[in-house]
């Protein structure tokens, strides 16, 4: 079976053709411009490939609820040309095949659950810490939606006493994303994040905020494992700091060996490298074809 996949991001659109095992047979990247310019290029890419289904992991917020009047829309995005744009309808009319549609982070969680570090997890969480902070949750191989979809990058956490930064989230200022995204690090310290590698207080503070968020997710969702990805996590010294602080903040309350004895295997980098999102989009296409979503 041939499956089309689109990882739709605010700066680039990654298109791929894959199969039901998650192998990528062909891939091309297009810059994200306006729908008028970009959509015909994407449709051209998929048009003559003979794909059976398409999966879209999309920047958001989106409406993934099939019963809703605005299903398939990118809704309240600050990327204005795409605001209230029905991306599913455009592809559906052009390609006339089943389409799976979800957030970029739910797609990444799904990819990790199908073929990566969240395999065999009843509850798996994928977090990207990059330009924004996004959280995808997979339960028994299905992305979690509920009301709309989780927006757990915007949870409220305790600001450290020594942190005078006001926060960068346009909606909540000092939510998790407002305090810990890549741009927040760069705004607070006045340097590119990758140029701050040797400044320990940067990563100490960053690890603290990430650990607080993880503790909240552990307490709310009881995940079997947590995957951390995104540009900021290229600072791999963060992993040890985060594991230490999660252990400290949990205070021995969650009595699981996965956390108490094996935290190195509990909070982990992506299993699929940079491909979690695009492979998850392949999986979304597969699930749409088989009516699994
Ligand atoms: P996006 O979130 O836009 O999909 P990324 O996950 O690559 O993209 O995140 C980009 C952000 O991650 C940049 O704005 C930068 O702040 C941060 N970043 C990228 N590379 C590094 C690095 N090596 N170390 C620390 N931060 C980085
Ligand atoms: Zn916010």
From TrEMBL:
Claim: Glycoprotein is one of the keywords in the record: no
Enzyme class, UniProt record, top EC level: transferase
EC number: 2.7.1.4
Pfam families hit by this protein: ROK
InterPro entries: ATPase_NBD, Carb_Metab_Reg_Kinase/Isom, ROK, ROK_cs
Organism superkingdom: Bacteria
Membrane spanning stretches: none
Keywords tagged on the record: ATP-binding, Carbohydrate metabolism, Kinase, Magnesium, Metal-binding, Nucleotide-binding, Transferase, Zinc
Zinc as UniProt keyword: yes
Cofactor: Mg(2+)
Catalytic activity: D-fructose + ATP = D-fructose 6-phosphate + ADP + H(+)
A molecular function GO annotation: metal ion binding
Family from the record: Belongs to the ROK (NagC/XylR) family.
Protein name (record): fructokinase
Name of the gene: gmuE
């Amino acid at each position: 079976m041939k499956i089309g996949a689109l990882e739709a991001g605010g700066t680039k659109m990654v298109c791929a053709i894959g199969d039901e095992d998650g192998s990528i047979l062909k891939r091309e990247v297009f810059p994200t411009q306006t729908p008028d310019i970009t959509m015909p290029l994407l449709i051209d890419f998929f048009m003559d490939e003979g794909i059976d289904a398409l999966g879209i992991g999309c920047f958001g917020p989106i409406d993934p609820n099939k019963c809703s009047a605005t299903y398939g829309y990118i809704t309240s995005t600050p990327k204005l040309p795409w605001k209230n744009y029905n991306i599913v309808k455009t592809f559906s009319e052009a390609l006339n095949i089943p389409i799976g549609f979800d957030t970029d982070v739910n797609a990444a969680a799904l990819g990790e659950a199908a073929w990566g570090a969240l395999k065999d997890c009843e509850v798996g969480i994928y977090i990207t810490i990059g330009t924004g902070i996004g959280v995808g949750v997979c339960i028994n191989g299905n992305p979690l939606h509920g009301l709309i979809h989780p927006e757990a990058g915007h949870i409220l956490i305790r600001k450290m006493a020594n942190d005078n930064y006001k926060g960068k989230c346009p909606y909540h200022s000092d939510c998790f994303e407002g305090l810990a995204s890549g741009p927040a690090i760069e705004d607070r310290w006045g340097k590119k994040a990758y140029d701050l590698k040797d400044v320990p207080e940067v990563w100490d503070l960053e690890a603290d905020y990430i650990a607080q968020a993880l503790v909240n997710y552990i307490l709310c969702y009881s995940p079997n494992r947590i995957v951390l990805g995104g540009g900021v996590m290229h600072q791999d010294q963060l992993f040890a700091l985060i594991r230490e602080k999660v252990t400290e903040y949990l205070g021995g309350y969650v009595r699981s060996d996965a956390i108490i004895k094996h935290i190195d295997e509990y909070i982990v980098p992506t299993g699929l490298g940079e491909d979690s999102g695009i492979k998850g989009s392949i999986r979304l296409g597969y699930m749409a074809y088989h009516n699994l979503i």
